[in-house]
Queue: 2 jobs
Job 1
Amino acid sequence: MKIIVNIQLKEGVLDPQGKAIHHALNTLNFNEVNDVRIAKQIVMQIDEIDEEKAKKRVAKMCEELLANTVIENYEIEIAK
Amino acid sequence: MKIIVNIQLKEGVLDPQGKAIHHALNTLNFNEVNDVRIAKQIVMQIDEIDEEKAKKRVAKMCEELLANTVIENYEIEIAK
């Protein structure tokens, strides 16, 4: 089963990488851009048939390793 | 308009960050994980009402700055 985890900074947490890209886009005359935020996407293949079980396992992975839950939120999505 | 750009390494391109996470997950006894790949997600707010025009502008941003098209693919998605 293919699972996609999106990890993004919580609202209010400063995103310097996003700010840098925003600035670079403005420099290249893409002035219509108002805000840029960067997120990580982790795409994994796991051996699990049950969707609920898979989501629970991946949530555990996020809590233990993948996300820094102090400053980041994560979303788990099953890729069809 | 909120636009999400997913930038991932092309197939066949080595992903050392993904490999490291895969290895770390196995060390933590998440043995059901078979493969991990990391992608970048760029979430931006742009001043544009027309979806087609917005997509074209963002594709241009990807070509010029956001993606390294030699090793990366990008997908543009309008967030509703």
Job 2
Amino acid sequence: MGTPKTKVPTPSYDKLTAHFQKISHFEHFSALGDWDQAAMMPMGGGQDRGDAMAELALHIHGLKTSDTLAEHLHGAEDESLSTEQEANLREILYQYQQANLVPGDLVQAKTKMAYQCENAWREQRKNNDWQGFKPNLKAVIDLAKEEAQIRGEAQNITPYDALLNKFEPGMTTAKLEQTFGGLKDWLPTLIQDVLTKQANEPKLVLNGPFDISAQQALGRDVMAFLGFDFNHGRLDMSSHPFCGGVPSDVRITTRYNEADFSSAIMGIVHETGHARYEQDLPQAWRGQPAGLARSMGVHESQSLFCEMQLGANPAFLRQLQPKIAQHLNCHFSAQELAQHYTRVNPGLIRVDADEVTYPCHILLRFEAEKAFVDGSLTVDDLPDFWSTQMQQLLGINTDGNYRDGCMQDIHWAVGELGYFPSYTLGAMYAAQCRFAMEKALGPIEALIDAGKLDSVFQWLREHIWSKGSLLTTDELIRQATGETLNGQYLERHLRQRYLGI
Amino acid sequence: MGTPKTKVPTPSYDKLTAHFQKISHFEHFSALGDWDQAAMMPMGGGQDRGDAMAELALHIHGLKTSDTLAEHLHGAEDESLSTEQEANLREILYQYQQANLVPGDLVQAKTKMAYQCENAWREQRKNNDWQGFKPNLKAVIDLAKEEAQIRGEAQNITPYDALLNKFEPGMTTAKLEQTFGGLKDWLPTLIQDVLTKQANEPKLVLNGPFDISAQQALGRDVMAFLGFDFNHGRLDMSSHPFCGGVPSDVRITTRYNEADFSSAIMGIVHETGHARYEQDLPQAWRGQPAGLARSMGVHESQSLFCEMQLGANPAFLRQLQPKIAQHLNCHFSAQELAQHYTRVNPGLIRVDADEVTYPCHILLRFEAEKAFVDGSLTVDDLPDFWSTQMQQLLGINTDGNYRDGCMQDIHWAVGELGYFPSYTLGAMYAAQCRFAMEKALGPIEALIDAGKLDSVFQWLREHIWSKGSLLTTDELIRQATGETLNGQYLERHLRQRYLGI
């Protein structure tokens, strides 16, 4: 795969692939260190881990900016490469350019500060300790701003665009403002219409407690049903659910609530979407930039496809229902579960939000990040900004509740500005994929009822997972769905599911 | 600490310490990768992990043999250093010399092969699959022999001495043969005498099942009683109990048996001994060679002190008894536990052996390793060698039982030849420490009964743990006990405890 039939020597390209293979070995330990810190590491190990992660980040940065690369990149341009090799070369060049934008000492300082801030945040959030968290957050945001400035200047783009590009290559603030701006036109009305419609629907009363280890066993059962390969991955607990690890060993986590199994289980369904993407990335391109997941937005589209397009589908819940009954010894009907999982309920917490109000949480964070970077918002003013926005977007008061307000997410604590838009991009890509898939295969509901869930995954494997980063995001989505990003499919999906129109 | 009162510039020494601090950051990930592989990693992740570990080992090897080090080592010789800095320089030089003995490609090949062999071994051992294991073991042993040859020639010592020195700096085959030779004179008779004495003593019947999670909770309770710091460490499960991680985050494991809690719990006591040593290494020397544990023999002396000198002490078992009763809801008397934990029972498995027959398992492995290295034993002949030796030493037949015979240990599977003698050296050092400690503090039994267990740990902290590698092994033991290694204390201990003389 990826090799032309007549083998022409490609010495420069070969040196590049060997070098990036080596980089992937070191990135293996970044991934392991991150997972372990969140899922396993005791607090007291944080300082040493942070120092070690910073050293590793600096080393990887050094490898990505190595002097010899420019020469090999130049040499490889004149070599006879297959289309896939060309794509890998494009991705290698992109990584090289991105790494060269930022000086190594800033990389190291950011990594160290992020670890320090995150470790403290885990306790501070529990204690609603905004005053304790604030100085750390300031330091992290200052470093992120410095990075944005440097990256922006070097690429001749705005600082915030430069941050977006770290997670979503090619994305711009202008494009996002246009796409997300569309949301603002129809979403508030939609939320109100759905709330009115659901006002008199019965609510599921979760009569727990539900044993945590039984919830775990149920989770593993659901993962297996969704095709998760346990020979190449694990399920664990962490305070913030995530998917980490490497494609040959994908580690997902969730958090459990004894009183309510529903969020832990749907969290697992979500992370399993991420995991399947990783586990099914192209084998032939393992360890190469072309073999990586395309972008954070596309990654999120796979998790949201699993959670929202599949997980909240009535047919999926008909499959889930007996598993819940068996593991948790409780007997909700599939109909009750479907109502529960499509209940719209404006709330404080982004990760617990339903799919209708979720984009509001992202709009808030998108506005805050832009304002941090252009200097119109300071960390001191963040709680007020948060309260005002939550009031406007969802009619919720967050005054004084920092832990469920501006301290709820890990992203800023670790200096990841520019990531949040990926969530709503993901929801849009997921809806767009669903309509394209159903055009080819018929309704997903019918497929699941017919025991053909695998054909859904086969479509995703063929059109998304197996492509890695061989195509650009726009081209990937265009080849899969017939057009580039189009936010209208999300609107169509939400109107269909929540208003039946 | 470690800095002379009048600060004289030490530029070369400072460069060395910065360089070894960096090395310790990469070694952090070796430790994490090893722990994770044994305690967490799914089988399918093994290939990538092995490749990544090999890359990391090569990188660390490169750092330890870096061209600039010779110059700084030379420069540091003329600098004005404190006694402790001199000791650190001695350890830096030793690490540099040891690393320079072996070419990087052999380091990488060994790491890769060890990971491959270990991963397969985990399944093969379960299946008693000697034929499957044999070719892997051959490859690993061949690489270990190559390493021994290269190391021996360069240091002008025998190949097996060169392997011993990796784990026990300064140890020689001659010294071991003399010390272990002494064992052969008195141990077989002692075993027979003890078996005769215990023949009619009542045996504890463990009326399980004992819930695994209850055993885990009991284990954590015992760890806390022994002063394990859970802010800087964890307890997990693995098929082969071990202590790993880094001093700020020490990871111990055990394995559980539903039918019999006693080995899991005493395994935890053993690993807690290792862990306390690591957690109490000198803070001021963290990340420097002088801050590392002294040797594998000294390390094992701390775990065996915990397990044998403390754990099997009747006073300790009087403390353990109510904890067992509480967690496992079973009511054995302290007297019954003491009989159980001092029961001598020649058996197949080294890690399950009592302290009286344990040295026989080491003698067998010591003889086999020497014979592998000098070529008088091949992997093909290992099962026969094993059977013959087990018959001679313990009167046990192991024919055809590979999983509980020559496939039981992980050490050879990962290419660690020269390590096994450390276990019996540890038992000897532990007994020697106990007699020295009791000379100063009075009997341990009385200390525990008086609630002064901490004074035992205080003695170990002062004489062993806080010294790191600031002293040579001989000097460490001499300062702690008044003399260098003396195997007679182990004999005295065993005669006292098992024959009452």
